[in-house]
C-alpha cells in the first residue's frame, strides 16, 4: 500500500515545481548492493542507492524523528537467501547534517506547511526511494538504535515485507511503540481444543468397546488405547524437542492441527465401519501428534509471553488443560451412552477444525524467532542441574496425581460407600480446583516467576492428603474439601516450576529441555502404576491407607523443596510483610 502511494506521489505533476531545487546527497558510507525485489511476473524493479541512511523521515507529532544510527540494507534476489549489510555508524550530529543535505534544509517543528509538503514530496520522490522503502519495511534495528543486523523473522529491514503485518508499528499517545499481540489466547484455545478432541475420542472409544465387546476383549482394547496414546511421549519427546528448536513453532503447530483434522476424518470412518482396530490406530496417531506438539506449544508460550507474565500465562494454559479433560471425558462418555456414533464423529471433526482455525492466528501474531539451521547448532547443550531438579519435581507431581486418580475409585466405593457418579464428581472437583490453583499461582506471581509458592504448595499437598487419608473417609463433604484444597495446592506447586523451566531454558535449546521434562513426566506416570500396585496389592493397604502413604511421599518431597527454595520463600514472606 505504501509502495503504491510512493509511486503515485512520485508521478504527481505537482512534484515538477520542486525539481528546480537540485538535491545533493554526499556519500557517507561505502556503496552497498542495489535492492532488487523480484516481481511475480519475473520483472525485477531495482532501487539503487549509495549508502542512504534509513532514519524515519516522515513527520510525527513530536517533529521529525531523529535517529542515531543507520539500519542494514538487505538484498533480495529471486529465491536466494537475503544478505544483511549493515551501514557504518554515524554520529547524531553528522546524520542530522546528512539528512538536512539530502532533504535540502533542516526540518524543524516550526517549519511552515509549504516547507513540510515540499520535504514530503522530496522524500517520496524516486531519488529518495531507497530511504522511503527502508522506512516502510525497516525492522527492529532502527528502533533499537543499533547497526547490528537482525534476523529476517525478527523483522530485519527489507528482507521480508510479507511479515510486516505480523509486526504492526502502532504507537500510543506518547509516541511509544505498542508491542505486537502475542497470540496467547489463540494458543490457549488451540491447546484446549486439542486436548478436548483427544480426551473425548479416547473416552468414547473406551465406552464404545466396553458396551459392544466381551469384557476380556474390551479390557484389552482399553489397555492398548492407554498404552498407545502414552507411548509416543516416552519415545518421541526428546526428538520432538529438537524438532521444535529447529522449526518455526507456530507453523509446526498449525501443520500438526491439519494432521489432526485428517485424523478426525479417519476416526469417523473407523466408527462408521465399526472397526475397533481402526479407531485404536487413530488413538495412537492422536497420541503421536500430541507428543510432537507439546514441546512446541510450551516453547512458543515462553517466546510470545514476557518473562513477567509467564507465570500467569502458564496458569491459564493449565486451567484450559484441566477444563478440557473434564469436558472431554463428560462429552465422550455421554455420546457413547447415547450410542451416537455419527454425532460423535461430527463433534470430533468440529473440534479438530476449530483447533486448526485458531492455530492460524499464531501465524499472524507475535514476532517469530528464526530457528537454527538443521545440523548447524553444534552439540546438544547439557541440561543444567537446576532445570533437572525442576523437571523431576514436575514429574513427581504427576506421579502423585496419577496415584490419587487410580485410588479414588476404590476410596469412593470402599471407604465413602458412594457410587461411580459421586466419584466422577470428585474427579471433576480435582480438575477444576487444580486449574483454579494454577490461575491463582499465576496471579500471585505478578511480575515474576514466584518460586516461593512451590514450598507452600508442597506443604499443602502433604497436609491435605494426610487429612484425607486419616479423617476424610468419614464424610463425603470432608473428602471433597480435602481434595479441592489439595488440588489448589498442587497448582501452587506445579505452575511456578513449569514457568521457571520455560524461562530458564536457553532459547536455542528450550524445546529439547522441555522435551526431556516431558520424558521425565510420562516416565513418572508410567511408574505410578507400579507405585499403586505396590501400595494397594503388594502391601494390601486400604484406599485410605494408600492416601496416607502418598502423604508420606509428599512430605519426603517437600523437605528438599523447602531446602532448595528457602531463598525465594524468604523473599516471598518479606514482600508479604512489606
General description of the model:
The chain has 578 residues and is mainly alpha-helical. It is built from 18 helices and six strands. It has helices at residues 2-10, 92-103, 113-123, 129-137, 140-144, 184-212, 215-245, 249-273, 276-304, 310-338, 341-361, 385-416, 420-445, 453-470, 476-504, 510-538, 543-564, 566-577, and strands at 35-36, 46-47, 59-60, 63-64, 73-75, 83-85. A hairpin with a 7-residue loop joins strand 5 and strand 6. The longest helix has 32 residues, at 385-416.
How many beta-strand segments? 6
Strand order of the largest sheet: 1-2
Topology as a string of helices (H) and strands (E): HEEEEEEHHHHHHHHHHHHHHHHH
- Derived structural class: mainly alpha
The helicity comes to 55-70%
Distance between the termini: 54 Å
Radius of gyration: 30 Å
Reported for the largest beta sheet, the result is:
2 strands, antiparallel
User: What is the beta-strand fraction?
Assistant: under 5%
Low-confidence parts: 1-110, 129-170
The overall pLDDT average reads: 74
Provide a count of the helices. 18
Which descriptor suits the 3D outline? globular
Structure characteristics:
single chain; 578 residues; mainly alpha; 18 helices; globular
